[in-house]
Amino acid sequence: MTWTLVFVLAAGAYAFKVTGLVILGGRTLPPVFDRCLALIPAAVITALVMKDTFSTGQDLALDARALGIAAAVIAAWRRLPLIVVIVVGAAVTAVVRQIS
User: Fold this and answer.
1) Do the beta carbons of residue 75 and residue 84 sit within 8 Å?
2) Please, what sign has the CA dihedral across residues 49, 71, 73, 90?
3) Phi and psi (nearest 5°) for 55?
4) Domain segments of the chain as ranges
5) How far apart are CA 27 and CA 9, in angstroms?
6) By Cβ atoms counted within 10 A, which residue in 39, 50, 71, 100 is the most buried?
7) Lowest mean pLDDT segment, chosen from 34-38, 39-43, 87-91
8) How far apart are the C-alpha atoms of 74 and 88, rounded to whole Å?
9) Could you write out the three-class secondary structure of the chain?
C-alpha cells in the first residue's frame, strides 16, 4: 500500500463524513432516528463480539469461548458488578479449555 493510496482513502473517508454533516447539519432529526442512532454503538460492539466468539475464519466454532460468553451473560443478567462478569466469563472459558 502506498502513501498516495492512504491519503486518497483518508480524503474519501473525510469527504463521506463531511457530506453527512452538510446534508443533515441544520436539521432536527425525528425522535425515532435519535433513538435508533443511540443504539448503533451497542449493536456494533455486540456484532463484533459475536463474530469473534462464534467463528474461526469462515467456520462456525462452538468452543470454550461460547460457554464463557454464556456465563458472562448470565452474570450480567443477574446484575453483578462488571468486574465479576468479566472474571466469571474468563474463568469459565479457562476451565472449559483445561477440561477439553
Assistant:
1) yes
2) negative
3) -140, 150
4) 1-59, 62-100
5) 28
6) 71
7) 34-38
8) 10
9) CCHHHHHHHHHHHHHHHHHHHHHHCCCCCCHHHHHHHHHHHHHHHHHHHHHHHHEECCEECCCHHHHHHHHHHHHHHCCCCHHHHHHHHHHHHHHHHHHC
